[in-house]
Design brief:
The complex is a heterodimer. Chain A has seven helices and two strands, in the order αααββαααα. By secondary structure, chain A is mostly helical. Chain B has one helix and 23 strands. Chain B is elongated and about 65 Å long. Classes of the chains: A mainly alpha, B mainly beta. At the A-B interface, helix 6 and helix 7 of A face strand 7 of B.
Chain lengths: 189, 292
């Protein structure tokens, strides 16, 4: 079977190409080497500490490495999730690296919101309870919206549309916190 | 018995009045002078007049004190209490030059501004704001109260937290923002306007200028747009569902990908004709558009 993506080439070469297998197994399995390296670390000299604590420390090191490995695997793997519905079967592919990166791109917004929330918390005692309750209610509404939008971005990290919704929710949160701080600042003087 | 009741009621009213002090003051102020007004609790009413002076009638609670002063360029007036004393409601009624630049801040304070054509900047926490007239520029905010603007101006910035936000009028550049309040826009014609809510519903029933650009962004708030019959329109919309004349209701698949906005044209003479642009973005809100 010829591949239409390959332009006109020598028919003999095309014949050779067509004979090549479509799937090739890797020449060697990397896992045994990784495992051997981990085991080597595990049997390192015990040193002066007691046996139990050393075993604990080895165990912790192993867990840390395993967690790191899991993170790498998790980070680079592409997890395919199928959301199949009766009327509209849709395939959603979640790239966790891209998802994490998409969420992390809002770090500066998160930082600003956190700073403003801490500043408001410091002035909270100077505001009357009804105002504090109203501010908290509005912030809960914004946070719920933000959570929904962020969850959607995790499912669909490449979507500029969803990014826009996350950004809008952050903008609203920062603007509202700034206004609340202005109010607290003005009336606590 | 009836006489006794009447006497008791009158004495109660009289004691209430005695608990407040009435003060009248006045200062000269340039036609475009600045005026700063503070009142923590109660009411502020500002009205523009054709004189280059400010007249104040302050009805101040017994534990509060009226203050004021300044020059022809600017005046500051307000009501203040003693530290540690719970502020009580006071009322400030002011007449100001029609072109004055007015700045008002309150907490539990209702603020009304009438007939000022300078800049108006009003902020309160739990009180309601009402502005009538044609200020050059208007900023009106309330955290939990309502904002009601019956005004046409060059620029408008209006914000609430949970209170309703109502605007009747037109503006070259308008921005209306709320968290959960209902936004109502009527009259117009709108030129450049942006409405943002988180969960608040947006209702626009207004004419549009030929070069209008109306942007509405909500997270969960529904959007209801009503424009005059035969208004030509480009619509660029992404919402949970879009319902409009001549198109089948379009629903975004639940749990699926966001496929991006869709564009629609209404009442255009030619397909590429210039027409007002309406942009809608809503994460879970529904859009209904009509030309009743």
């Amino acid at each position: 079977m010829t591949d239409p993506r390959i332009p006109d080439i020598d028919p003999r070469l095309r014949g050779r190409l067509d004979q090549l297998p479509e799937e090739v197994q890797p020449a060697r399995d990397l896992w045994p080497e990784i495992r051997a390296q981990l085991d080597a670390d595990r049997v390192r000299s015990l040193g002066a500490g007691d046996h139990v604590s050393t075993r604990r420390s080895d165990r912790a090191r192993w867990l840390a490495r395993a967690a790191g490995l899991a993170l790498i695997i998790g980070g680079t793997a592409t997890i395919t999730t199928y959301f199949v519905r009766e009327t509209d079967p849709t395939v959603v592919v979640i790239d966790t690296t891209q998802a994490t990166s998409a969420i992390n791109s809002f770090a500066s917004y998160e930082q600003s919101a956190g700073d403003l929330a801490r500043a408001l918390e410091q002035r909270r005692a100077k505001l009357d309870p009804a105002t504090v309750e109203a501010i908290e209610r509005s912030l809960r509404t914004i946070d719920e919206a933000l959570d929904e939008a962020r969850a959607a971005l995790l499912r669909d990290p490449a979507s500029a549309q969803v990014r826009g919704y996350v950004e809008a929710a952050y903008r609203q949160k920062i603007d509202f916190l700034r206004r609340a701080n202005d109010v607290a600042n003005l009336w606590s003087l | 018995m009836r006489t006794l009741t009447t006497v008791l009621l009158l004495s109660l009213v009289a004691s209430g009045a005695a608990a407040q002090q009435r003060t009248e003051r006045g200062w000269p102020l340039a036609p475009d002078g600045a005026l700063k007004i503070h009142n923590y609790s109660g009411r502020v009413v500002v009205t523009g007049w054709d004189r280059d002076s400010v007249a104040v009638i302050a009805t101040v609670a017994k534990n509060m004190r009226f203050f004021g002063g300044g020059g022809r360029g600017g005046i500051k007036v307000g009501v203040e209490g003693s530290p540690g004393v719970e502020p009580e409601a006071s009322t400030l009624e002011l007449r100001v030059p029609v072109g004055a630049n007015v700045w008002v801040r309150g907490a539990a304070t209702d603020v009304t501004v009438n007939g000022v054509i300078g800049t108006v900047d009003v902020g309160t926490v739990s009180g309601n704001v009402r502005v009538n007239g044609t200020p050059r520029s208007l900023t009106a905010e309330s955290m939990t109260g309502t904002v009601d603007v019956d005004a046409s101006c060059e620029t408008l910035r209006a914000k609430t937290g949970s209170g309703a936000l109502t605007w009747r009028g037109s503006a070259g550049d308008a921005q209306l923002v709320t968290v959960s309040g209902l936004v109502r826009v009527t009259a117009g014609p709108l030129e450049r306007a942006r409405v943002e809510t988180v969960s608040g519903t947006v209702r626009v029933e207004s004419a549009l200028r030929a070069d209008a650009r109306l942007t509405i962004e909500t997270h969960g708030g529904d959007i209801d747009l009503r424009f005059p019959p035969k208004t030509p329109l480009h619509l660029d919309a992404d919402a949970a569902s879009v319902t409009a004349p001549g198109i089948a209701t379009r629903m975004r698949p639940a749990g699926g990908r966001f496929t991006g906005p869709s564009t629609y044209d209404f009442n255009l003479v030619k397909p590429q004709a210039n027409a007002p642009m309406v942009i809608v973005r809503s994460f879970t809100g529904k859009l209904v558009l009509g030309f009743p």
